[in-house]
Amino acid sequence: MNPVIAVENLRVRLGKREILKGISCRLGESGVGKAIGLLGPNGAGKSTLIQTLLGFHQPSAGSAQILGLDCHRQSMQVKTRIGYMPENDSLIADMTAVAFLRLMGEISGLPAAAALEKAHETLFHVGLGEARYRAVGTYSLGMKQMAKLAQAIIHGPELVILDEPTNGLDPAARQRMLVLIKEMKEQHGMNVLLCSHLLRDVEEVCDEVVILKDGMIVHQSDLAAERQANKRFVQLQVTGDDRNLGAALREIGAEGVSETAGTWRIVLPIEVEVNALWRLTARENLQISKLAYRRDTLEEIFLKAVGHMQPKAEAEVAHGRI
Amino acid sequence: MAVFRRGYERYDGPLTGPVTRFMAIPRFAWGKILSQRFVVVLLVLSLFWPLLCAGFVYVSNHADLLPNLGGMQGPMAKLLEINGKFFAVFMNVQSTFAILLAAIAGPGLVAPDLANNALPLYFARPMSRWTYIGARMMVLFGILSLVTLVPGLFVFGMQASLASTAWLQANWWLGQGLVLGFVLYIAMVSLVALACSAYVKWRVVAGALVLAFFFVLAGAAQMINQILRVEWGSLLNPGFAIYTVWCALLGVEAVEDAPGAWECFAVLMLMLGGLLAVLLRKLRPVEVVS
Questions:
Q1: pLDDT lower than 70: segments of chain B
Q2: Phi and psi at residue A20, in whole multiples of 5°?
């Protein structure tokens, strides 16, 4: 499997400060459209990592590769294969959207005729078709975000780096942006590196997630696998005398922790079906009032990873959950 | 199929080479600059002097047709001679138009990219800082060539075609001096315009700064000369320095007791280096705050 992004002991120093402190990871899969979420509190090094991948910063040690190419030494080749949507306003205000996209397309290597055609096509795709001859300076914030996305994908890159794409968008525009990002990976086979503070966006779109803190990776996981694994965590609420339930759960190989009276958090082994809980509670004369898969939200994963939340139970740690 | 009916498809065709990518920026910029009425007016005005010079070249090569001059043997013969002095004067006049054009067109090149934070979009594409500066200089090179190199070579070509082959064999270096002199001048004016544009993001102020660079430094040079009773202060005057270099290239005697061509050339190189350093410092994809 060839990763889209491969970072090996990457250290980046800006001035006297070391921002990235030897991070290593392999993200995405070349040829398969996947979205990777990049999370972290302010000052964690997310932007520096993105900028290093774009070749803006020289690593002080280690290496960063995109699609097998070194981001620093082969930055020109890398840049023909990636698209970048910056967080800040970066559109040239007095240019029309078509002219701006055409210019960006041509700089990316599209022939003039193809660049013009793609400019129109991409602007229609992001919903700016009717406004494509307007100066981008007259656009609303939501339209500007869409125009920034359009310039990032006009040349059909293999990897698109999106820095806070849903910033400042109203709910409808945010949903539209997320749909476009999903389409990019699912229909067009693009890989997406999504940097966002909005955990719900990352959770909705991404397949993998990396959490940075103080220039180090504190968590990296496959969200799809994580969701699958979370199906083994059950939250149970029973009425009746549940003093023996813990021992009964151990009989079927499950582990349970009583949170409050009648409320249990249970970790089921893979081979044990949920039906076994119904039989067990019936045997113990307990009445189930609630049974739900207890799923960790990305917010919980994030807060635990950055150290703002204590791990809930030793058992969970033992089962590979943070 | 109409574009709005077509869905988005990733581009998978061939990519253009570095030269085509490089020229994309000048092509867009030229279109924008030439759509400004003031630029067009200035370009038209700048053609009057070359036309006058072309007329002069014609007359000098057909002096025998003018009865009162008595052919090329008369007292006017010296005045009508096409030599280094003629081209030095020609270049001096045209250079004024070049400065004005640079002051109008230059600030609109880098300032909008900086003011709109658009540099990351350029540098996230296969374009380095050097390529970006080169592409922006190419914009000015093209525009300023229209008022310097192109009319200069036209006048020189006209003289070469009207005069005998012997004239061309004896004076080919005038053409060489004209090209080298103008290229050096365009490089300096372009870098001044780009550096001012990068330093001051406000276009009008940047334009004023371009003019100030030449006039204020000329004034400062004169002050130093007068106060310290020296001549080397003229080195600070970019107009003087470039004129001295032109004179050397065209074989014309420069101002007496003033710094020589090599000194002026060295100062010009230092100026170019300084302007380039300003540009490189300002044109970064991201600002690193210490």
A1: 65-79, 288-290
A2: -105, 125
Q: In whole angstroms, give the CA distance from residue B244 to residue B252.
A: 9
In CATH, the architecture of A232-293 is 2-Layer Sandwich (3.30)
Sign, Cα dihedral of B111, B126, A42, A16: negative
- Burial (CB < 10 A; 0-12, 13-18, 19+), residue B67, is exposed
Conformational region of residue B258, where left means phi above 0, alpha means psi within -120 to 50, and beta covers everything else? beta
Question: In terms of Cα–Cα distance, which of B244, B237, B238 is closest to B260?
Answer: B244
Residue extents of the structural domains in chain A: 5-221, 232-293
Q: In angstroms, what separates the C-alpha of B3 from chain A's closest C-alpha?
A: 6
Which of B192, B178, B176 lies closest to B238, judged by CA? B192
Quote the CA–CA distance of B57 and B162 in Å, as a whole number: 8
Q: Does B285 touch chain A (CB under 8 A)?
A: yes
**Domain A5-221 grouped into CATH 3.30.70.100:** no
Task: Tell me the one-letter amino acid at B23.
Answer: M
Beta bridge partners of residue A211, listed in sequence order:
A39, A219
Q: Dump pLDDT digits (tens) for A201-258.
A: 888 899 999 999 989 998 888 887 766 665 577 888 999 888 888 888 888 888 888 8
A305-312, long-range: CB < 8 A, 24+ apart: A305/A211, A305/A213, A305/A218, A305/A219, A306/A40, A306/A41, A306/A44, A306/A211, A306/A213, A306/A218, A307/A213, A307/A218, A312/A265
| β-strand pairing of A159-163 with A191-195 | parallel
Residue A139 makes CB contacts below 8 A (sequence gap 6+) with A91, A97, A131, A147
Backbone angles phi, psi at A163, to 5 degrees: -105, 110
| Interface contact B35, partner A, CB < 8 A | no
* A117 pLDDT above the threshold of 90: yes
List of chain A residues whose C-beta atoms are within 8 Å of the C-beta of residue B15: 80, 108-110
Measured between beta carbons, the chain A residues lying within 8 angstroms of B290 are 15-16
What strands lie across the sheet with A5-14, from one edge to the other? A17-27, A5-14, A61-66, A69-70
CB of A79 less than 8 A from some CB of B: yes
Q: What is the pLDDT of residue A132?
A: 92
Chain centroid offset of residue B146 CA: 9
List, as ranges, residues 96-135 from B with C-beta within 8 Å of A. Answer: 112-113, 116-118, 120-128
CA distance B246 to B252: 8
The phi, psi pair for A6, rounded to 5°, reads -125, 120
| A105 touches A154 (CB < 8 A) | yes
Q: Pick B288's closest partner by Cβ from A15, A76, A120.
A: A15
Instruction: Tell whether A113 lies on the interface with B, counting CB pairs under 8 A.
Output: no
Where does chain A show beta strands of DSSP type E? 5-14, 17-27, 35-39, 61-66, 69-70, 82-85, 159-163, 191-195, 208-213, 216-222, 233-239, 255-260, 263-267, 287-293
